[in-house]
Amino acid sequence: MENIYDLIVIGSGPAGLSSGLYGARAKLKTLIIEKGKTGGQIVTTHDVANYPGSIQDASGPKLIARMVEQCKGFGAEMVKDNIVDADLDSDIKVLKGEKGEYRGKAVVIATGCTPRKLGAPGEKELTGKGVSYCATCDGDFFTDLEVFAVGGGNSAVEEGMFLTKFARKVTIVQMEDKLTCARSIEEKAKENPKMNFMFNTTIKEIIGDGIVEKVVFENRLTGEITEYEADEEDGTMGVFVFIGLIPQTEIFKDKIDTDRIGYIITDEDMKTNIEGVFAAGDCRVKTLRQVVTATSDGAVATINAEKYLESKDWNLVDSTI
Description:
Elements: E1 5-10, H1 14-25, E2 30-34, H2 60-73, E3 77-80, E4 83-87, E5 93-97, E6 101-109, E7 113-115, E8 131-132, H3 135-138, E9 146-150, H4 154-163, E10 169-173, H5 183-191, E11 195-198, E12 201-207, E13 214-219, E14 225-229, E15 238-241, E16 245-247, E17 277-279, H6 291-311
Parallel strand pairs: 1-2, 1-6, 2-3, 6-17, 8-15, 9-10, 9-15, 10-11
Antiparallel strand pairs: 4-5, 5-6, 7-16, 12-13, 13-14
Helix pairs in contact: 1-2, 1-6
GO biological process, one term: removal of superoxide radicals
GO molecular function: thioredoxin-disulfide reductase (NADPH) activity
Subunit structure: Homodimer.
């Protein structure tokens, strides 16, 4: 007897957990597979102020813990494994992990994406404590403080301008000798009195005891090292990194339609080009990557996965053959 799941969700961020919750509540035999830490990027966020209804104990880890509890409460199974290959063309999808093989009738890919890192000492330790990769998520926490925004492309400069709504000063740190964003964006940024620019510069180290207190810069042309400390009255400052995102979709390359960067292409029902395979959250092509849109994607994906299963006239409760 071979165990076959009705629904397999790859990834346990907000999109994956939402998908798993909807699957389990619909009485689908549901499995959620996660290779790393449950929760995705949101678990590095200490305050989640922009998720509707998230007021008390509004931290990323606590929000995810409640989502996991809901999923398990309705009967979703969860395993830790790294999926290294997938056969998605047959009616029964086969996912090959480092620890085992998993078979399911429908699959929701919710593998997310990861921000490209600076690789500077202190960056990892101070992520969520002054180092951020999302202006929309964390900008409000730096009201009236100084902020450094790393990157010179469209997203970096636009995010930097967004941060001027909160911070008293935003400095773009660009490793090139000029901005690489569109001219219209550059002109708007340079007209903003709160915007400043550091060219030919990289961040060498981020220093702080529990929060960002000092940033060490290096001039790429001269090799000059400059240390910048937070104002004594402020006690801290922000470092926002906008040097790109990496979709976690490598194993699906040449199996599913993606854009040139690697984001999975779906329709509004979260359907991919392969029947029975859906994608949700940050790993798909979309305009806004936030917890609220990720959970929405997960719900939509599973509702349509359920419709797909029903259209195939399968027994949705008894999933063993």
